[in-house]
């Protein structure tokens, strides 16, 4: 914690000094595991991708967006189910991951929503998905496309 | 002295009222409350709707009487909850094996505008073969949802399309059409499969 405050102060000083600040918690510390998605029927329906994003560094990282040639509008979404059992979905906003922590994108919770597909998602293929982090860092993963009825990365 | 006695009675009175209020709360809203009957589906025998299954057959609540039924709502443009529920159900059916053969499994769309009979046929084809897809005119879908005490709502998305918020629970009915229980979204398989067995067992009791 103390170290975090110190580095933040340092960053603030460097910024004030007009120097460009490298992403302190660089995406080289971000580990993406168990990425998977389901095949689509055609291109009219939105797709969804899932994965675990782990912050292996010692600074917090903030996921601010997604980018992929597969979809014009990729966005982190969150599905919520209320006390009456009604499910709804909405943009999740920015997601900050503390050092040593993971965020799971999994069915029924957070997901990478792939809106306006540019091509069908075909079982057996993969597509590149880039995670955009605060500070300009990027991490690109190859996401395997599994069957429509897949339940997890192992299916 | 007198005044103190009055105070005493007053305190006892307040205590009695508080107890009554507590008992009332316990029975109405508290742990002693009965299940919220108004929020549970009515029996299939009390429902009235006309839909079409993914093979073009006319279907209604009577189609489901005589066999236990597992039913749920969704739509084929749903990227997350619906394929997950459909694959969960496919997994439960695999676990049940032969037991599941004598069961109705119905996926009812809440998005009839996009989910035509042909669309439903293509979609359900990717999941367990026991799953039937039902669609129909919007006002008939509304009647089904009403009988199930389910809700759905069309919501525009930033991409210019729309999505549907909807009840994601899986409903279980006995062969008689009586509502048995529901499986909430996110419920673990070790709870789901015994619940389905319970609905199947009710059929056995009715048969013998
Ligand atoms: Cu979504």
TrEMBL record, chain A:
Gene3D superfamilies, A to Z: PCu(A)C copper chaperone
Signal sequence segment: 1-25
InterPro entries: LpqE-like, Lxx211020-like, PCuAC_sf
Entry keyword set: Signal
Alphabetized PANTHER family for the sequence: BLR7088 PROTEIN, COPPER CHAPERONE PCU(A)C
Name of the protein this chain belongs to: Copper chaperone PCu(A)C
Organism, scientific name: Gymnodinialimonas phycosphaerae
